[in-house]
Amino acid sequence: MPVSPEYKEFLQELFEPLGPIKTKSMFGVDGVFITLPDGDLMFGLIASETLYLKVDDTNRADFEAENKRPFVFESKNGKQDVKSYYELPDALYDEPDAFTDWARKSFDVALRGRKSKNKRKKER
How many C-beta atoms surround the C-beta of residue 106 within 10 A? Predict the structure, then answer.
C-alpha cells in the first residue's frame, strides 16, 4: 500500500532536527533516507503508514521494552521478519525530543553499518 503524501510530510517535520529526509519506494515499502556527503543513508522504512527504524544490539532493547516487533513482510515462503528494523512506539509521535533521540540512535546504527561495510570492501 502506497504511503500517503500527508504521512510523508508529517515524518519530514518530525525528522527535521536530523536534517532533511527523503523517501524512496522500494519492494512495496518506502525507505527513509538522509543525504550525507558520501551518498544517501537508509535508517528507516515505512510500510502501511507505520514507521520502522534501524536497530542493532545498541538500541534493540529500547524497542523491545516498548513491546515493539520487527518489520514483517509476506513472501512466497511465508512471513519473514526483518530484524534490523523495528516499529516505532506510538507515544514518540507526540514527543518530538524523544522521537529525535530514537531517530538519531537509528541513524547512528545505519552509519556504523555503512562504515563496517565500507571497511570490509577495502580489505578485499
Answer: 27
